[in-house]
Write a structure and sequence with these properties.
four-stranded antiparallel sheet; 16 strands; 15 helices; D-amino Acid Aminotransferase, Chain A, domain 1; alpha+beta; about 35% helix; Dna Ligase, domain 1; about 375 residues; eight-stranded antiparallel sheet
Length: about 375
Amino acid sequence: MILLDEPYASEPLLTWMEETQHPVRRNTFVEGLAKRFNLNMVDDEETANRINKGERVYTNSENALAWILENTDNLSLCEGIETFKDKAAMRKALAPLNPDLFYKTMSADELANVDFSQLPVPFVLKPSVGFCSMGVYAIQNEDDWNSALADIAKSAESWKAMYPESVVGTETYILEGYITGTEYALDAYFDEQGKAHMLNVLRHDFMSPEDTSDRMYVTSAPLVREMAPLFKSWLDQVNEIIGVRNFPVHVEVRVADGKVTPIEFNPLRFAGLGGTDVALYGYGYRTYEAFLDDKPVDFDAAFTGKDDKVYTMSLLNPPSGITGKETFDYDAFCARFNKVLEMREYDVNRVGNYGFLFIETERDNPAELDFLMHTDLVEFLK
C-alpha cells in the first residue's frame, strides 16, 4: 500500500507504480499525478482496511503520516510512527543504547527564557518534529544561541506554510548534546520478524562543524560494503527496543570509534523528496520495490563494475538574503558537472530548496564535489 502526498513524488517512483499497479490512496495530490500516470487509486476505506490487515505501507512524504495515525487501527504501526517521528520520544526510548547523551525538550516559549550559562555547550537545537534540516542549529556559544532564536522567530511562519505541524513542528524543540563523528544516512526496513535489511548507506558531508545543510550525501559500493554490516547490527538492537514489523525507515546517525548514535528516524519512507532514487541511478535497484515486494537487495550483483564510481545527491539550499523572486539558472549550474544523472527543479518558495541534484563522479577526482560543497549558488541566481 502506497500513500503519496505533497510536496513531491519522483518520476521513477510514479513510473514504477504505473507499471506494477501497486494501490495508492486517492487524494488531491494523487489525482493531479493521475493526469500523467495511470495509477491504481483506492479510496480511504480500502486504504485503511489494507493497513489494518498488516499490508506493507510506504510513503513518499511525511505529510501522509497524520492520515495514517488518524484513520487506521494498526496499533504497532502507529506506535512506531509516533516513536520514530518524535525526536524526544525516540531519545527516551533509545536511551539505553546511548546513556550518556544529553537531551532536553522545551516549548517554543520556554526557549526565550533559558539561562544559557546552564546549558552544556556544544549542543544542537532543533524541532522535536522536523524535516530536511529545517530549524536545525549547531550551538557553540551564546551568540549562536541568540542567532538561532532570532532565526526561529523569523522563519517559523514560513515553515508552517511549507509543511504541516506533523512534519515540521514549531511548538516543541529538543536540545541535545553535539554528536561527534562521521554522519551517515541509511535507507533500511524491518521485515516481518523485525530484522533489519539495509538498502543504501550515504555519507553526509559538511563544509564545517556549523554546517547543518543537506548539500552533500555520497554513496559508493566500497562505502556500503564497509558500513552496512555495522548499521544492520545496530538497527537490530534498536528494534529489540521498538519492536516494529514490516516497517521502512530513513535514519540519520553519526559514528565515532565504531559507536553508532542516532540523530533522527524518519518513519515509513526512505530518503526524502525522492532522494532514495540515488540507489536506482547508481546501482540499478528501487528501494521501495525491495521493501514493498520483499526483495532484499543483492549488493554483490548491484555493485558489479561500480567500485570506482561515487554517486551524490545534493539538496540545493538557497543562500541567505534571497527574496524568493530570483530565477535559478539550472543550465549553467548543470554545466559545471560532467555527468548529471538528474536535476530535479523545485519551487524554492514551496519546497525551501532550488532542487535535487544527482551526479556520478570518479572516485579519484573529487573536484566537482569540492565545488558542490562550497558554492553558495549566488552565481546562478538572476
